[in-house]
Specification:
Structural class: mainly alpha
Helix content: over 70%
Shape: rod-shaped
Strand content: under 5%
Radius of gyration: 36 Å
Number of strands: 0
Distance between the termini: 41 Å
Length: about 250
């Protein structure tokens, strides 16, 4: 094709048809420009198609991760409610006609030191932020919703507060009021019968033990606060997952 155009130019110049040559040259330039624009358009379309594919993959993975967050919240909530139910039953034995042995009461009381904690599945989001892939998401409202959700999920102080209360307050109170007796040492493989001068656990005395009831109040209070917080976070996660799935439906149809 270029050889054909060159022959035309040479013919026009040899015949001294400069005006026609000028028109032809301008037309040729226009054709080249149009060709370049078409090539750029094709290249842009190809890049947009690649980015759209990457956007779909990213949104699919984010939807899965948010779904895992919802499942984790459900699991944590179920375990926490079940544990609080068992602890409530343990406390009820203090005022029940059905007697409970000291060993069983002590074993049941260990659950005062147990908690569940939420950790957001943010691996896909973190990688997308660090690599700049979040720019693939063209819907600005959805992109902002994703950032808001993970910021909220990561900055929750409720679980950290519960962990601190359990480690620094509940555990020492439990040891002092329930575990600090010779039988508890024996269960740990420590024989202190002839060494330690400590009294045996008196379950009846726990009814008036303020440290024991303060521990119980803190445990139930902190766990109930966790459950409430998880409930709000679950609502946020469900709302975000719905938005992501709706965007995926729009992009794939």
């Amino acid at each position: 094709m270029f050889k054909f155009f060159r022959k035309i130019r040479q013919k026009l110049l040899s015949e001294n048809k400069f005006s026609q040559y000028l028109v032809y040259a301008i037309g040729e330039i226009i054709l080249v420009v149009i060709g370049i624009l078409i090539a750029l358009q094709i290249n842009n379309y190809s890049e947009q198609k690649k980015e759209r594919k990457q956007e779909i993959i990213l949104l699919q993975n984010l939807s899965k991760d948010v779904g895992l967050d919802i499942k984790q919240i459900d699991s944590n909530s179920k375990k926490t409610n079940e544990r609080l139910g068992r602890l409530n039953t343990t406390l009820s034995f203090l005022n029940s006609k059905d007697s409970i042995g000291i060993d069983e009461f002590s074993n049941r009381s260990f659950e005062f030191m147990v908690d569940n904690y939420f950790s957001s599945n943010s691996g896909i989001f973190d990688e997308a932020v660090s690599s700049g892939k979040m720019s693939y998401i063209k819907n600005p409202l959805l992109s902002q919703a994703i950032f808001d959700y993970y910021r909220n999920a990561k900055q929750s102080l409720i679980d950290g507060t519960s962990r601190q209360i359990t480690d620094e307050v509940i555990t020492p109170l439990l040891v002092e009021s329930v575990m600090l007796n010779k039988k508890a040492f024996a269960r740990l493989g420590m024989q202190v019968e002839n060494i330690a001068d400590i009294e045996a656990l008196d379950i009846e005395s726990l009814k008036s033990n303020r440290d024991f009831w303060r521990m119980s109040l803190l445990k139930f209070g902190s766990n109930q606060e966790q459950l409430m917080r998880w409930g709000f976070l679950k609502q946020d996660a469900q709302g975000l997952k719905l938005k992501i799935d709706q965007e995926l439906e729009r992009l794939t149809n």
